[in-house]
Design goal:
Largest sheet: 3 strands, antiparallel
Number of strands: 3
Radius of gyration: 14 Å
Shape: elongated
Helix content: 40-55%
Number of helices: 2
Distance between the termini: 29 Å
C-alpha cells in the first residue's frame, strides 16, 4: 500500500506496517510496490523455486 506522508510517498506493508521506502513521486512508489509484490509471489511458482534452488538463491 502507498501512503502520502509529509508530501512524500511511503510504500508500507498492509499486514505488518513495515516501510519499504520513501519516494518523492507516486511513480517511484508504484515501481517499488511492483517490485515488492513480484518478490513476494516469486517463491510460489514451482518453476521459479527450481530455478532459484539451482542458482543457490533459495534453500
Amino acid at each position: 500500500m502507498i501512503k502520502k506522508v509529509k508530501g512524500k510517498y511511503v510504500v508500507v506493508s498492509e499486514s505488518t506496517g513495515r516501510s519499504f521506502g520513501t519516494y518523492r513521486t507516486l511513480a517511484e512508489a508504484k515501481k517499488r510496490l511492483r517490485q515488492v509484490e513480484f518478490f513476494k509471489h516469486l517463491g510460489k511458482s514451482p518453476r521459479m523455486k527450481k530455478a532459484l534452488r539451482k542458482k543457490s538463491l533459495l534453500k
